[in-house]
Amino acid sequence: MMIDKVKNLVLDNLEVERKFVFHGSRNMLDEFTGKIIGIYPAVFTILDSNGTVKSFSYSDLLIGNLEIL
Fold first, then answer.
1. What backbone phi and psi angles, to 5 degrees, belong to 7?
2. Do 43 and 35 meet the contact criterion of CB atoms below 8 Å apart?
3. 58: closest CA among 37, 44, 46?
4. What is the pTM of this model?
5. Helices marked H in 13-63 — which ranges?
6. Which secondary-structure segment (H or E) carries 19?
């Protein structure tokens, strides 16, 4: 997947309630529900159901650290 396709995927899911899975360090999984609320040149932000804003880079999607379900 190319970075342009990843950016389009993020744009297509802007303000849509989705489930996300983040594969962190040491095999830790963080599953949460939220909405993509901000799109920036290098990162995008997600507001999760607890009201916390999390930021991720497009490369997190590209290499599989973050999944949009």
1. -65, -40
2. no
3. 44
4. 0.91
5. 58-63
6. strand 18-23
